[in-house]
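New to this. Please check this protein:
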Amino acid sequence: MPGRKPLPTQLKLVKGTARSHRLNPDEPQPVVATPDPPEHLDEAAAAKFTEMAALLARHGVMTELDVGALARYVVIWRRWLEAEAEVKRRGPVVKTVGGNIIQNPFLAVANKCLAQMGQIESEFGMTPSSRTRVRMAEPSKTRDPFEDYLNRGSSA
């Protein structure tokens, strides 16, 4: 579908851009959780998953539905670490068997991983610029029509 990706209702409420006539009443409302890492992750990736899941849950961002996205993040993170180690070991440029000097292929892998990590970090609000788009509204003295919705997460 062309155009902007729709924002989740929770993000619209936090940003203060929610309009009752535009909200999806049937939108799933997952509960904040700290899920276990998927079994396919290696030990280092699983440890990073657990660390990041706890951090994201503390900030109200992690749910059971986000396991796949966070697993992709830690897999890419591990690949980035491995590529960076090879760049450090061999340098940013290498000689081919024919004697030509080229960019280290691991540098391209590292750069691609950084771009992919940046996209996922933005989805989770883990970058300074993605956090600036989220603002908390001052609590009103009168009952807000979204009060039940906002307070629902704090009673769970």
Remarks:
- Helices lie at 9-15, 43-58, 67-90, 105-123, 128-132, 147-155.
- Residues 22 and 63 are 24 Å apart (CA to CA).
- The chain is about 50% helix and 5% strand.
- The mean pLDDT is 82.
